[in-house]
Amino acid sequence: MTDLAERRGAETTVYQPAEDSGLLAEAALEEATGRVLEVGTGSGWVAKRVDEEAGEVDEVVASDVNPHACRQARERGVEVVRGDLLDPFRAGAFDAVLFNPPYLPTDPENEWDDWMETALSGGETGRELIEPFLDDVERVLAPEGIVLLLVSSLAGYEEIRGRAADAGFDDEVVREESFPFETLSILRLSRRSPSSSGDY
Ligand SMILES: C[S@@+](CC[C@H](N)C(=O)[O-])C[C@H]1O[C@@H](n2cnc3c(N)ncnc32)[C@H](O)[C@@H]1O
Q: Closest residue (by CA) to atom 27 of ligand 1?
């Protein structure tokens, strides 16, 4: 279990850009095209970079469940919808969906009941937000759409790949960086091709 206090610093309302945000933005600048959704945008920093710098992106929409995050992202100039994961969005709407999820495995007794807990804690497994996201994200993708998902080794890399495979995706690591206590990867998910064996 990870102590949220070490990761949250003094911030109590909106997650500010960190190494994970940077990794997701770099991957998105290379991989994202067309209509892009960033789920859980926090400060809006990733969405804004993609909107301004990605060559083949037409439009960026973002979402967050935290009203303070929505306000901060909007002040940055990002188009934001407040809502839970993918619920606000219609089927087939996006060419790329980005998500840097809350992923720290957290003992319920150590959690804070505030918006930084919502930003950081992935529940006891670290996957409590990742799993419902993976189960629904295919619905909002256009036919050739992709997902860029930040995965930490703390949340169970193989378990996440397995869940993505169950949801019908092939995966590929497009960015990876190791830190003393975790390895962060960006998984690029695309609908499984008919010829793929589904091994993982
Ligand atoms: C690790 S932070 C990432 C913030 C930002 N995308 C970045 O990379 O800097 C996770 C974000 O997901 C948001 N979040 C948590 N649960 C959510 C949910 N059920 N639906 C939408 N957003 C959620 C949090 O409020 C937080 O802003």
A: 42
Percent share of the chain, pLDDT over 90 = 86
Residue type, 177: E
Tell whether 79 is covered by a domain.
yes
Question: Is the Cβ atom of 152 under 6 angstroms away from ligand 1?
Answer: no
* Residue 122 near residue 102, CB atoms below 8 Å: yes
User: What's the gap in Å between 184 CA and the centre of ligand 1?
Assistant: 16
CATH code of the domain covering residue 48: 3.40.50.150
Residue 57 forms part of a structural domain: yes
In a domain, 197, yes or no: no
Q: How far is ligand 1, taken at its centre, from the CA of residue 87, in Å?
A: 14
User: Global pTM?
Assistant: 0.93
Q: What distance in angstroms lies between residue 199's CA and the mean position of ligand 1's atoms?
A: 30
pLDDT at 2 over 70: no
Name the average pLDDT for the chain.
92
Ligand 1 atom nearest to 47, measured from its CA: 6
Q: Is the pLDDT of residue 173 over 90?
A: yes
Cβ of 80 less than 6 Å from ligand 1: no
Task: Specify the number of domains making up the chain.
Answer: 1
**Residue 170: C-alpha distances to residues 82, 146, 157, 196, 197 (Å):** 29, 10, 14, 8, 10
In a domain, 171, yes or no: yes
